[in-house]
Amino acid sequence: MRKTLFLALLSLATALGAQTSIATNSPTPLSERVVQYTIDAQIDPVKHTVDASETLAYRNLTGQRLTSFPFHLYLNAFQPQSTFARETAESGGFREVEREYPEHRRGEIRIASITADGFGDLTSAQRFTAPDDGNAADHTVMEVPLPHPLEPGETITFHIAFQDKFPESIARNGYKRDFMMGGQWFPKVGVFWHGVWNCHQYHATTEFFSDFGVYNVKLTVPENYTVGTTGVSTGIIHSGGRNTMSFYAEDVHDFAWAASPHFSETTETYVSAMGPVRIRVLALKSHPQAGPRYAAILRQTMAKFEQWYGPYPYKQITVIDPEPGSAMEGMEYPTLITGGTDWWEPSWLHLLEVTAEHEFGHQYWYGMVATNEFEEAWLDEGINSYTEVKVIESLFGKDKGILGGTYANAGERDLQRYEYTLVPDYDPMTRFAYKFRDERSYGGVTYGKTATTLLTLEGMIGEGTMREAVHQYFTKYRFKHPTTDDFLLEIEKAAIANNRVSNSPAYVTVGAPFTGSGVDASKGPVDSAPALRFYFHQAIYDTAILDYAVDSVTTQPVQWWKPEPEDPKKTDYLNTVVVHRKGDFILPVSVEVAFDDGTRTRVWWNGKDRWQRFTFQKHGVKVISAEVDPDHIVVLDKDRFNNSYQVTPHGSAARKLTAIILFLEQCLSQVATWIV
Length: 676
Ligand SMILES: [Zn+2]
Description:
By secondary structure, the protein is α+β, with helices and mostly antiparallel strands. Helix content is about 25%, strand content about 30%. The chain is built from eleven helices and 33 strands. An eight-stranded mixed β-sheet has the order 5-4-8-2-1-14-17-16, with no helix packed on it. It has a five-stranded mixed β-sheet with strand order 19-20-21-23-22, with helices on one face. A five-stranded antiparallel β-sheet has the order 29-28-31-32-33, with no helix packed on it. A hairpin with a 3-residue loop joins β4 (about 110-115) and β5. The longest helix has 23 residues, at about 440-460. The protein is elongated, with a radius of gyration of 28 Å. About 45% of the residues are buried. The structure holds zinc ion. Zinc ion binds near residues 358, 362, 381 and 384. Zinc ion binds near residues 358, 362 and 381.
């Protein structure tokens, strides 16, 4: 309904001759354009340098007088004394030369001058700050105090001259052979957010956070270079063996580029509900299969995102295939992503497709829904890992996400789950990215645990409800900076609207037939936490471990003191199942009990006590097995081997197939560590 109306208005606006945008398929601005960057950059791929001038117009929409401006200088992270390098060394990086920081790994961004119209020359006022850890030698944040305040509603225009020296890539940007990746390459202003400037240092685990705006960028490169960028191309001038190319991007919060003399181009068009989208793939000539493969997966992924969450509004998406082994693979920027291919990769190993899907997903969770990646990384990487599972499963099948081979299949959800089970529960999902115990914990929790938590939630409230919630979240918060609360509230709203949980104090029982009120009628209202908060508190804000087990399954005659008659069918049996909550995570669960006459029964447990005994008195019937969470909804259960228990014909207990499953899980966790 809403979409139809929107499209009608869109065509009406077009018919009336309304100004259409250059880089989006929307006739009107999509974001509150806080910043406007104009950059003119000379790129030297031999020296790996950039010499540039930047004009930044910043609109003060904060409602406050601003007395200083912080800028990110990300390239200064690639120096031995930086916080980024210190943290990377601590977690085992930079080992190629023992106790030495190689010169070619050094990166730098130097501000030659900074002035502002009406504020004078600010060059000598600039100073480095380290708001996160106080490391005075870290130069990734620069603060520029103003001689007098910028009033609310006014615009300040900075003019900055800067020089970059790119490192041989360590993470995300830099050079590799003659390939150059311009990510985080220019002085970028922080975000005034929740009443203060938000401008974190660059850390080993952190990504980015910026305001939306407009970018006019000119890049001058040797004429044998092909360039891919954020936004769209608006012109080219040839002069003296060099090309000066102009690019324009709007309603984005960053601008990235990649340049190589070895790109070959593949283009395709995807027609979204808002208009045509050009898929431009720049793949290395040594990877001839990569172009069509990237284009195909992009088209499929874009269609799924449009169908489930909303259309991609930009006119172009550019895919860069970087030099192998460059540490620049699998990265997202607005309307530009990097993939990653290796010559040895067989086509049934869908790493290229999964990487491209993941990075395209970031156009939604980061690109448009621009959460603070320093502080709430689970909202971009985690939600993106969840939608990755949904899209990859729908495209390749539930068990064939990564390994679509004849001998080995591995589903996306399994890989996310193993990533989560591999790390100890040191850190909650909501922890600031740079405050995680280490990079492993950050990765396992932010990607794997989040995906697993959201898949479990989907099992509880239903796939349709979850999709509606994520769609609402996207629609409401695209081109904004939402928080954890905003996301969780949309889930609760959708769950209540679909009658999946009650708005009154209630709890849901996983796998229980839904009563409509959200309360398991047989146990009564147990939890005073409203709606889904009981789950969110434990899974998202806490580090509680979820592990339910069937401890024992036993049978004995009711009249145990009498000799058992010849015909067991004439004996009354007391069948007993003991279920154990081994972790501190409390979640109501269901238990399925199977008997030797072929019948099955389900019981529900609020999971509050440490353990629960269920007894079944049956005439001539013995229990043969029991399984907690029989529908396999609670993927967040850390140990699934102890979830079922089977009695053998000899009366001793055996864990069915445990050895084989354990072996498979080990293989899969190996795969999971490769692709993290
Ligand atoms: Zn990601």
